Amino acid sequence: MKVCLANDSFPPLLDGVSNTVVNYAAIIEQKYGSAIVATPRYPGVKDNYPFEVVRYASFNTTKMVGYRAGYPFSHNAMRRLEAFGPDIIHSHCPMASNFLCRELRSITGVPLVFTYHTKFDTDIKRAIKLKFIHEPAIREVVRSIEAADEVWVVNRGAGENLRSLGYSGDYIVMPNGVDIDKSPADPEIIDRINRKHRIPEGVPVFLFVGRVIWYKGLRIILDGLRGLKDMGQNFRMIIVGKGDDLEDVKNYTKDKGIFEDCIFTGAIYDRAELKAYYSRADLFLLPSVFDNNPLVVKEAAACRTPSVLIRGSSAAEGVVDGYNGVLISESAGDMTRALAALCADREKIRQLGERAAEDLYISWEDSVAHAVARYQQVLENHKAGKIQHPRVKYDRMIDMIGSTYKALVRARLVSEGVAEQFKEVPGEFGAWVRKLYGNIKDRFDRYQ
Predict the structure, then answer these.
(1) How far apart are the C-alpha atoms of 19 and 364, rounded to whole Å?
(2) In whole angstroms, what is the distance from residue 247 CA to residue 290 CA?
(3) pTM for the whole thing?
(4) Residue 145: pLDDT band with limits 50, 70, 90
(5) Whether 355 and 425 share a structural domain
(6) Are residues 125 and 191 in the same domain?
(7) CA–CA separation, 176 vs 365, rounded Å?
(8) Is residue 239 within 8 Å of 262, Cβ to Cβ?
(9) In this structure, is residue 80 part of a structural domain?
(10) pLDDT digits (tens, 9 = 90+) for 52-110
(11) What pLDDT does residue 119 have?
(12) Where does 114-217 have alpha helices with state H?
């Protein structure tokens, strides 16, 4: 099976969805066939993966949305993707990636699967300051999702969120996995973390991993910790990651008088080191209503570190309060109360962590195996003519772009054939034909 995966974020940018695409591609390449990834180009990045990565033109929008936006109608990228010969296309982002995937479907005729990972409406509202544009922009993205032949969501909460935005089609729940296994972390790395950050023995350690952006619930964490400090409880808060709000968050900890209790590590790319941070922590804190099915909660569970989450949030799906995690209201006061109670009962934390590892953990191998089985069903439905995706806005434009691409490819093949025939022809006429072909080739290359 040949699978084309596409996403707007990919390493060096680290987030849950880029991690998903890397693991899908690696496991498909290893066990099920071949994978290729299409993603926007990042300056200076060299890809070294066991699968092919196609980078296409991009422009810098990191301050707006946290990653570079791609130009999806790249002739060169499309040529490489078509040459790969995918059996199925899998988009992980409703923005540029989905337009690229729709064009590739128009050219190849193979089915398109879309996975809804994150609440993109939050990103739209954050990136676009003009409020009257929010709803039209959200509607357009929903239409783009509806163009897929099959829609997957990472959990039921994600599906409900997608419905609330106006999506009316069917969807299938397809949970993501994690690449951190349940074996113990390297004790030498944990010891190195303790020495590096001078973490006192016996002091509770809390952890956040992810993009450092306010809407991840960081204000609730920091205000809750200020309340904990007011109660006389010593602690260390480790924040792993980078993001647009990192400096603001650091300044906020200074204003709250807890900067000396907080540790900012920046992004950690080494998975063994990250596993050690998860294992060193007593509790993982993610009081976010933004995340749908955050991998970080499962990664923490793999390390037997229970999470503190918002009751009723998508991130808390599968978590039972007081059994395999802790659920609080969306308030700093509730965070303070929960942390104070757990700091006084370390055995309770251990029990929560053991149950989290049993209930919440799923490996990427199992997750991708489920996805590949569903790919097979999608292909069978496609061959049987059971898939009829609705025609949505921009489909005609995308079909026209695809037709133009095909015409250009045919024209180039014809011109190359003519040039080949006249390659050995002597004299001025042969030279004129070869020069003409060279000019045509230059025009094709500029278009790419």
Answers:
(1) 10
(2) 21
(3) 0.78
(4) very high
(5) no
(6) no
(7) 10
(8) yes
(9) yes
(10) 999 998 877 666 556 677 778 788 898 899 999 999 999 999 888 998 999 899 889 99
(11) 76
(12) 120-127, 134-146, 156-164, 187-197
CA–CA separation, 208 and 192 (whole Å): 19
Helices 346-359, 332-343: axis angle to 10 degrees equals 110
How many other C-beta atoms can be found within 10 angstroms of the C-beta atom of residue 434?
14
Among the listed residues 213, 240, 237, 198, the one whose alpha carbon sits nearest the alpha carbon of residue 336: 237
Q: Does 388 fall in a domain?
A: no
**Can you give the residue range of the structural domain that contains 147?**
2-177+365-383
Place of tokens 């069903």: 377
Per the structure block, which two tokens stand in for 399?
Answer: 């079909």
CATH number at residue 17: 3.40.50.2000
Looking at residue 268, the DSSP 8-state letter turns out to be -
DSSP 312-356: TSGGGTT--BTTTBEEE-SSHHHHHHHHHHHHT-HHHHHHHHHHH
Q: What are phi and psi of 49, to 5 degrees?
A: -125, 160
Q: Does residue 418 surpass a pLDDT of 60?
A: no
High-pLDDT (> 90) share of the chain, %:
65
Phi, psi of 155 (to 5 degrees): -165, 175
Do 207 and 354 have their domain in common?
Answer: yes
Tell me the residue type at 23. Answer: N
Cα separations in angstroms, 106 against 7, 385, 400: 18, 16, 9
Asked whether 124 and 137 are in contact (CB, 8 A), the reply is yes
Q: Is position 389 within any domain?
A: no
Are residues 44 and 160 both part of a single domain? yes
3-state helix, strand, coil in the chain (%, to 5): 50, 15, 35
Give 325-330 contacts, CB < 8 A, sequence gap 24+.
325/352, 325/356, 325/360, 326/283, 326/352, 328/287, 330/217, 330/220, 330/287, 330/289
Do 19 and 163 belong to one domain? yes
Average pLDDT over residues 369-391: 91
Work out the mean pLDDT of the chain and round it to a whole number: 88
* Secondary structure class of 307 (helix, strand, coil): strand
Instruction: Examine the domain organization and report whether 342 and 401 are in the same domain.
Output: no
How high is the pLDDT of residue 423? 59
How many contiguous H segments (helices) and E segments (strands) does the chain have? 17, 15
The total of structural domains in the chain comes to 3
327 lies in a domain? yes
Same domain, yes or no: 27 and 162: yes
